[in-house]
Amino acid sequence: MTNAGDAILFLDAPANHDRTAEGTTPLPLSFTGSAGEYFRIWIVNLFLAVITLGIYSAWAKVRSRQYLYRHTWLDGASFDYLADPLKILKGRIIAVTVLGSVVFAQQYSIALYLVGIAVVLLATPWVTVKALGFNARNSAWRNVRFSFHGTTGQAFLEYLKGLGIAVITLGIGASLLRWRVTRFAVVSHAFGKLPFRFRTTGSEYFAAHFMAGMVGGMMMPLFGLIGFFVGGIDTESRREVGLMVGFGAAYFVMFAFLKARLASLVWGGMDIGPHRLSATLTFWRVLWLQATNLVAIACTLGLAYPWAKLRYHRYLVSQITLHASGPLFTESVPSTNSGGATGDALGEIVGFDLGFG
Fold this sequence. Notes:
Order of helices and strands: EEHHEEHHHEEHHEEHHEEHHEEH
Oligomer: single chain
């Protein structure tokens, strides 16, 4: 059996795929998992994590990601997630200790607490690099692993530039911070010897956030007015609740728009070597999924969460297509940044990830 570290991948464009006018072969991604199977994994993970006081959560993460990755297919082969649960557990223990110390410091000294917060914020670039490196190194397709070669210095520079733009523009250019960090994350990845590139521009990111703000601005008065009358006009408290629900609905619509647009810009803006990805998520579909998922989770007291997660994951994957420009040839190379489980644990809190899980 070929080891992942020595694997060589050669894939000719399959005969059963039609070539486009640009001479590329579209290879759509697909997902074959079922909600029933994933629910069984999720409920067992939850039970074991509770009775072990969170210790099993590291194994739970690996089991969940392996299911999602191994049921996500590209051209007849599934992805795989290869992380060691023990390393994740050690990383989580360190992460909890660090964050717990910061919170605990608040009880003794506000100054010490603020210093701790500042240190955590300054460590964000390091956390991002370590988390992305860990997840890339433990993700594979056809025995070829992904890799990440970005450095903490590069990440810090991108954060600094993005924050500078946000401050100078009084927050108007904050979307460019998100774009710079996303671009850094994408172009620092590679699949074997095939480097990633990012076609999406900062102006497209800015336009997405601007349009989302416009959608929210148009929806807020409408939903606010509806909430006011639905809440009733006989009591002040009912009016306040109605307005809160109305404004909350407007924000929900705005973030659904932004989620759909950014997902299309990120996944649809990647090149892998000479090959490119496209993504076509639509606002109305994402809004419907998000709204019905929220209702289902609320009505089942959280038991519908795995169904909701799989539902969105299936839609996301179905909208991504790899356009292969001729045969794909690559080989595994040693990663210059294998990441760290501590950074991965802290990265879960930061919430930045390019993976499928």
